[in-house]
Structures are given as C-alpha cells and as structure tokens.
Design goal:
By secondary structure, this protein is of the alpha+beta class. The chain has helices at residues 14-23, 52-55, 58-63, 109-115, 127-137, 142-152, 239-244, 256-270, 286-296, 319-324, 355-364, 402-409, 419-426, 436-439, and strands spanning 3-8, 32-38, 43-49, 68-74, 89-93, 96-106, 155-163, 167-171, 180-184, 189-192, 203-208, 213-218, 221-226, 236-237, 250-251, 254-255, 277-280, 304-306, 330-332, 341-346, 369-374, 413-416, 433-434. The strands form six sheets. It has a seven-stranded antiparallel β-sheet, covered by helices on one side. A six-stranded antiparallel β-sheet has the order 5-6-7-8-12-13, covered by helices on one side.
Length: 456
C-alpha cells in the first residue's frame, strides 16, 4: 500500500516537488518516508521513521539538490517497521548508483534471494531490497536489467528508480498496484501511485502506466517499453477502489469518488431498510454513504467526527483511555443521532474488533436502531500482495456467517454489497481485477505460499 513518486523536472527543485507529491500520498503509509535526488552526477538521499512533515524541513530539502527525485512513504508488509527498511534504497552498480522505491509485495522473495551471489550482503529485511539486488547483479543496460526483473519477480510491484541522470518507472505484469504518469507544462514528467499527487505540484495527468510497462525519462525525453505480459492476467487490487486510493484520484479513467458513490447506491438497492438518516464511518466510506442516501431518499448526516491526528502517535494512552477505545478516534455528533434509526455505511469489516465499538458508541449517543451497510463483500481470505490483511484465524468473515457477524457487532441489521454490485460500480471487467481477499482466487500467488487450511 506504500506511496511512491518520481519527478524529472529540468531547471526545477525536484526534491521539493517530490515532497509535496508525497504529501498527497501520506494516507498510503505512515511508518517512514524518504526522498532521493539526483543532479546529473550525484544521488543524495534522506529517510527516517515517521510522518513526512516531521522528517523534512527546509534545511534537509536544501541538501537534496537536483532536477530528478523519487520519494516513498512506507506501509510495511514484508520486512519489519525499522529505519533500515525505509526507502528509497541506494545501490551501486558498474553503471553507476541508483535509488529505488517499491510499492507492493513479492510472493517469491525466498526464491529470488537464493539466486543472489553468496557475497551479497542484505542490510534490510524487505523484499524491496532483494529486488534492488537483482538489478545490481543483472547485466546490460538499466532498461535490460529492469526487463529481467519483470521476468523473474512475481507478486505486486510498482517501482520508481532514478540514476544520476535518468528516471525510471515500471509496473508488474499483473498491474496489482497503481502507477500513473503526468507532465509539466514547462517541461518534464512526474509519476506517482495516484493521480491526486499531480495537482499539488502543477503536473497534468496523462495516463496509467500499463502493466509490464517500463518508462524511461531523461534529457532526450520519454521512452516506453512494453514487455510481454501474455502469461499474466490483469489484476488491479479491488481494494484500491474500496479503501486505499484517495477519492479525488482516478484509476483507468474511472473516478474513485464516482465508483464509491456507485457502490453506495448499489448497496441501497440490494439492502434497503426503514431508517431516518444515513451516515458514514469516516473517511473512506463517505462517498458510499452519500450514494446510499441518494438512492434511498434518506438524508445524509455526519454521525461521527474523526480525530485525524490520533492514528499515529508516540504517546501511548493509559489503560483507562485504552478501555474507551473508539472514543479516542471518533467523536459522535449526538444531535444527529439521538432518537433516530441510523444506517451506518463502512467500507469493510476485516477483523471485526472496531465495528462493535462503533455500534455501541452510536447507541450510547441515542440512536434507537443501528443498521450496518458495507460497501464491499465479506473479506474471507488474506492478502499476499501487499496488504497487511490478517490471517484466516483473524478474519471474522472467514469464521462466521453474516448473521453471526451481525450479532457480534450488536447491529440491528447487516448488509454487504454483492460481488456483482462491487464490480459493476468500478466499471471494470471482473477478470481485470484481483479479488483474492473476497473469492480466494489469486492471480499470481503460488499455492505453496498460501495457508493449507481454511479455518471455519
């Protein structure tokens, strides 16, 4: 789920542009962040644990001179949350130095690690470093080395890479994680995980980078090389539509906001209920709740106000505060809840630990009925492609029926969006997305890398 960006902007401060592009991707990872910049001769880098705004200041950005930069904000899946795993990674080859940033998760990391030279030293513990080392130990031009990685690496990977004088971007043959291309009116290009990164830096969205495509940008312009992806099925992660991507981004020319609103409308058609108001669990479920309200003819209200600064903190709450749980993250708007039958729209239920607390909070605030509506089907299977989505033991929908989940949450009713409704809302073909966490059918995960038994 990490956020990545790359900038090639002759005559401009690329690191500063990358910094503001990353700000638009902070939601994709809050554990660490870093920027590497190149000026045609030297690559300089800075990375730390924590949020972007706490890591970089004017003095640090001033040291990252150059017209090329890449940036990364990390959400860990493979490799622990420690500074050595922060990115971009810096590597050295006979071609020169390069910086490397990765969004995704490999499924054959162990096999790739075994192909590395015995003398190779791995300083980090992530699959990203293994990919970078494969590039180091490959032969030929950087374009040829990247083509080799596309042949041997399995799983999800969107990559930005810069040498001293070039910027590269490439995407796995399945297209699991998003990556898009933009341009500046005064010359130069940008790439990013999401199109919402372009407006803050004055770039204009051009298109998605295709699955299996390699982009090279240098002083001569932009070059695209499309590798053979006939063996790979298109598999953009469905959760980009459900949760990950910002609502002001678009994927495959489809607005995320429009898709989520359509999910809410579909949900209202599939699971109507008599109620007084519709509300969302903020923030990602807001468009879905608006769509539900539109389709049902009920008013949309704010029932919960989210504290956007409590999620990542270095100060731990004491036991008394921890016992209040959801109260730390959400404050109820009692005036919109008291004496009302409330439909609560959320994007998903994963482990099922937070939802009962939200239902209880709404009842404490005076709601007479609480009806849960979820803009995704039940999540019954773990993810192996870059989302830290529990195990079978932890996934509530893998172990309980919808009625049992309703009872555990304390809701008066519970309705999930159907798989058909979800697919229709995205505007994509069913066979163009990864639905593994919903169906158990994974596009590129060898059976040996999955649990052998299903609990429940």
């Amino acid at each position: 789920m990490c956020g990545i960006t790359g900038v090639f902007a002759p005559g401009r401060d690329a690191a500063r542009l990358a910094y503001f592009a990353l700000y638009a991707l902070q939601h994709r990872g809050q554990e660490s962040a870093g920027i590497a910049a190149a000026d045609g001769g030297t690559i300089r880098s800075h990375k730390e644990m924590g949020l972007l705004g706490a890591i970089f200041d004017e003095a640090i950005l001033g040291q990252l001179s150059g017209h090329i930069a890449i940036g990364h904000t990390r959400y860990s899946t493979s490799g622990s949350s420690i500074v050595v795993n922060a990115q971009p990674l810096l590597e050295r080859t006979e071609l020169g130095d390069f910086a490397f940033a990765h969004n995704g998760n490999l499924t054959n990391t162990d096999e790739l690690r075994e192909t590395l030279s015995p003398s190779t030293v791995l300083a980090a513990t992530s699959d990203s470093e293994v990919m970078a080392k494969i590039l180091v130990e490959s032969s030929g031009s950087m374009m040829e080395r990247i083509a080799h990685v596309l042949e041997v690496a399995r799983g999800a990977y969107s990559i930005v890479l810069c040498t001293q004088d070039e910027l590269y971007a490439f995407r796995d043959p399945w297209g699991v994680r998003p990556l898009c291309l933009g341009s500046f009116d005064d010359g130069g290009y940008a790439v990013a995980s999401e199109s919402s990164s372009f407006a803050p830096i004055g770039a204009r969205y051009m298109r998605e980078i295709e699955r299996g495509e390699i982009i090279r940008i240098n002083a001569d312009g932009i070059e695209s090389r499309r590798t053979d992806v006939q063996h790979a099925e298109s598999a953009l992660c469905m959760f980009e539509y459900i949760y990950f991507a910002r609502p002001d981004s678009k994927l495959d020319e489809r607005s995320i906001y429009v898709a989520r609103t359509a999910m809410g409308r579909m949900l209202a058609y599939e699971h109507p209920v008599e109620a007084d108001v519709v509300m969302a669990v903020p923030d990602s479920a807001v468009p879905g709740a608006i769509g539900y309200a539109e389709a049902s003819g009920l008013p949309y209200v704010e029932g919960l106000i989210k504290n956007r600064y409590i999620g990542r903190t270095f100060i731990s709450p004491d036991q008394t505060m921890r016992s209040r749980g959801v109260h730390l993250k959400f404050n109820p708007v009692v005036e919109n809840l008291r004496g009302r039958r409330v439909i609560v729209v959320d994007d998903s239920i994963v482990r099922g630990t937070t939802t009962p607390r939200i239902v209880a909070l709404l009842r404490e605030s005076g709601a007479t009925e609480v009806h849960l509506r979820i803009t995704s089907p039940p999540i019954k299977h773990p993810c192996y492609l870059g989302v830290d989505m529990a195990t079978y033991d932890e996934l509530i929908a893998a172990n309980y029926t919808v009625e049992e989940i309703r009872q555990k949450t304390g809701a008066d009713s519970l309705g999930y969006l159907s798989l058909e409704g979800l697919i229709a809302a995205t505007g994509r073909a069913r066979d163009a997305m990864c639905l593994g966490c919903l169906t158990g059918s994974y596009p590129n995960v060898p059976a040996a890398h999955r649990p052998r038994t299903l609990v429940g």
